[in-house]
Amino acid sequence: MPAVFSNRSLYLRPCMNSTHLQTSVIIIGAGPAGAGTSFFLSKYGIPHIVIDKAIFPRDKVCGDACSGKTALVINRANPDWLSEILADPADYLPSWGIKFVAPNGKPLDIPFSPNRTPQTKAPGFTVTRLHFDNFLFSKMASPRCTIFQNAIVTNITKTPGNITVTMGHAGATYSITAPLIIGADGDKSMVRKQFVGDNENSRTNAIGLRGYYTGITGMHPENFIELHFLPEVLPGYLWIFPLPNGMANAGVGILSDVVRKKKINLREQMLNAIKNNPQIAPRFANATLTDKIQGWGLPLAMHRQPISGDQFMLTGDAACLIDPFSGEGIGNALYSGMLAAAAAKEALEQNIFTAPFLKTAYDDVVYKRLGDEFKISATLQRLCKYPWLFNFVVNKACKSSSLRNTISSMFTDMDLREQLSKPSFYFKILFNK
Ligand SMILES: Cc1cc2nc3c(=O)[nH]c(=O)nc-3n(C[C@H](O)[C@H](O)[C@H](O)COP(=O)(O)OP(=O)(O)OC[C@H]3O[C@@H](n4cnc5c(N)ncnc54)[C@H](O)[C@@H]3O)c2cc1C
To answer: How far is the CA of 186 from the centre of ligand 1 (A)?
Structure first.
């Protein structure tokens, strides 16, 4: 009988030293990537075990901005969940646009939905990860899903046909077997290390710091998220993202090799901009930092790389799927989880778990859906090295409503966004074509 049709994860036998469980899919990590995978495995009726080392609610260093892709996956998993989010203004703040501030200090407001009607739902929202990840975690509960939190994975082994995970939990040892494992265990993924074998420095292409503040002034009335391309942090940026209840998430993100080469102290740089930058400092004059500033890596999708192999798939940060320009990773983690669940269903139905099968069923699908977006964003990311180009586009856009509308449409239209990476786009702006 194919594993997909079996019932809940099977409790097999308590041995003297460990309890043995068997299931169809093991997921390591219960963040957005793990939750996204679990939602769709449950939809397909596939039993699975999710293991996380943390106890939820748990925090994750992030900018806390969720794009339309996040809403899309949640809506596909269960439309009621999205309605729940949109009806909870105490925890979720709808965002209607983005403010870019060019290196010369010129701001450019780009609404996400320039032609919206009263029925239009906000395309994005902000929410603390402490709250959002706990929301996702609570929605994983299903008869097909067994969850272990506060669990320590001590070993992962692969034998033909079987992955075995050894885990310590609540004073007991478990050995869990399945034909398939999904690494949803974030930037420092042990599944990735085990099966792909690379070291984390080569993957972590950017570093970000975030702090929570109250009392920042000058926010956009429609909760636009703000990206400030300050000359001192290029090719990265400083962000200010409004949150519910007068809170805001402020931080900086920059390429790791720039930090290394220029020996940048990112924390100092962030605090320096907040204290001294003529545009930023007045807005923080009465602001209070409510928590310590924390940092984490952003594994960027700068180029295609294998994200599966014999009996395993990687999702979210473990698969390096963060957008290289915007830093968006939550939506891509959920989205890749959704696609990994579909690939797992196919693999279980056909009882094939080989690298070539999973490459076609998973890698090719992920890169078909997200690959163009990544390529364009990687090009835009490289263009940030040229502040004059940024200044030029923003100056022109401030004067031209049709250019502002074009940039606005780029958030939803990939063909339009691709123009940004072509010299002809700038040529047309230059000559007002
Ligand atoms: C500073 C910063 C700002 C960011 N801002 C944004 C933003 O505004 N918007 C956006 O969309 N993205 C943003 N990102 C990216 C986003 O945070 C990640 O892309 C996203 O969290 C990826 O989700 P994930 O589920 O893959 O990994 P994670 O959210 O990291 O979840 C991984 C889970 O795996 C668990 N785990 C790890 N190792 C093990 C183990 N060995 N055993 C068991 N469990 C394990 C962890 O406890 C965790 O729960 C930002 C990132 C950073 C660093």
So the answer is: 5
